[in-house]
Amino acid sequence: MNRRECPDAALTNGTSAWMRRTFALDLRSLAAFRMAVGATVAADALLRSRDVGLMFAPDGMFPLTALREYLPGPCAWSLATLVDAAWCGPAVLCLEFAAGVLLAAGCGTRWATCAAWMAVVSVLRRTAPATNAGDAWLAALLFWGIFLPLGAAWSHDRRWVAARGRVLSAASVAIVLQIAVVYLVAGLSKWNGTWLSGAAIRHALSVHDHGTPLGERLFGSGWLSAPLSWGVLGWEILGPLALLLLPAPSLRLILVAGFMLFHAATCLTMSVGLFGYVGLAAWLALVPTELWDRFGRAVSGPECVVPASRRGIGTWVCMAAGGLACVSLAHDLGPWRTKPLPRWLVGLVNIPCLHQEWRMFDEVRPQDQWAYARGELADGRLVDVVRDGRPLQSIRPDGGFTSLPHHRWHKLFWCLAGRRDAAAVGRTVADALARDWNTRHGPREQLVSLEIRLARQSRAPGDDTLQDVLLAAWPPRDALGSGGLDRLLGSGGRPRDGM
């Protein structure tokens, strides 16, 4: 019997050791993660306040009637849509800022994490057409953080004590897997001719795609494009696999440093909203214990491991949410992704806001693309309404997408162009932009007409095809069918191609 039990015991011990080394998180790493995520949440609230009149007001770009048609399925809750009043959106932004500050300080950490998660989800859904993967990732990390002892070290709750120890729980497993899945799915989706050709980075870092002027200048052309494209592809696939399968502290430290450098470079060279900063914060949670012990004063304390006998309701909620996340991930990766999930299942996934859709930059086409808002003024001038009224440049406007107010406008126009269910939002966006402009300008500068357009021009050898697509127009057509479209057809402009 002993001979038969020994292999089983060795296997059990080996599995337990692998679980601890892979999924146990140092309390000081969680504290650093908490501070970074809290600062990101507070900064997000401040940055979004720039658009509070356009993106949160009842008569802004996203009135609730159009927004509810756009949001996916039932149970897409948001505190910012509970009351259709001008004060509701700013109130939720204030909640987001306050929760972020309290979370960073570790003051009432568990409640601050809950409040931050609720505020981020609420803001994400209130401005859904202008959000991206970074916002969804932030919401997911905050959800798992609710079930982790984020305030156990370096917090106001614990009087700023640098407690030593690690935690292994359902939530620690979930957050490690969440981080790994984001990169693994993104990397696998890039396994196509676009990236294998080595040209993807050159096109993606154009200011007419997602690049910043610095990114386009450094890497947007020349011999570096191919090795960088292949390097990103390999790093996003092999990195998360190494994280899960080879949990040696030295390798973990290399991965943490490598991915943080990757995100720092992303922040400098690409316009992708919060994604780079959320990635920097996420990897802080995975800093191995050995680094803290090497450079910090070791503090005695037991390793915190949550055994099966101590599982409470939080563990079961976390495990149920993890199951829903797995369902969402399987749906996105499978051949059945074009078929919607049952409404009741979509509603369950919507409650924790754990949609797993991470196919980022899966296909980067050889093209330049830009959005512009052609505004005709009462005095006859043509201006670009979304570029602060500068003279209209309909062909490759200087600065591309980087000359828009910020990344969320970039994302908004891509959403209007890429989603069939965004037509209602397109109309309200045009109405809100025209109303905002006319409120801020005198009689001679009043808008007479407005066209929001997205243009794409191929950069493939021997192909310079230009598509210039109307996304939305103002004023809208009247009940007799005359108005915007008839005006555009009679404007004498160049032919427009559909998408």
For the sheet with most strands, the description reads: 5 strands, antiparallel
Number of helices: 20
Coarse structural class: alpha+beta
What would the average pLDDT be, to the nearest integer?
Answer: 88
- Report helical residue fraction: 40-55%
Unreliable sequence segments: 1-5, 298-309, 479-499
| Overall number of domains | 2
Order of helices and strands: HEHHHHHHEHHHHHHHHEHHEEEHHEEH
Portion in beta strands? 5-15%
For the secondary structure, the number of strands is 8
Instruction: Please report the distance between the alpha carbons of the first and last residues.
Output: 70 Å
The radius of gyration computed from the alpha-carbon positions, rounded to a whole number of angstroms, is: 25 Å
Shape: globular
| Oligomeric state as shown | single chain
Strand order of the largest sheet: 6-5-4-7-8
Describe the structure.
The protein is an alpha+beta fold and 499 residues long. It folds into two domains: 17-350, no CATH class; 367-489, no CATH class. The protein is built from 20 helices and eight strands. The protein has helices at residues 2-23, 27-48, 52-56, 64-70, 88-105, 109-126, 133-145, 170-189, 193-196, 200-204, 213-219, 225-245, 249-269, 275-284, 289-295, 313-333, 343-350, 407-418, 423-440, 484-489; strands at residues 25-26, 166-168, 304-305, 367-377, 382-384, 390-391, 447-458, 466-474. The strands form two sheets. A five-stranded antiparallel β-sheet has the order 6-5-4-7-8, covered by helices on one side. The protein has a three-stranded mixed β-sheet with strand order 1-2-3. The radius of gyration is 25 Å and the shape is globular. Residues 1-5, 298-309 and 479-499 have low confidence and may be disordered.
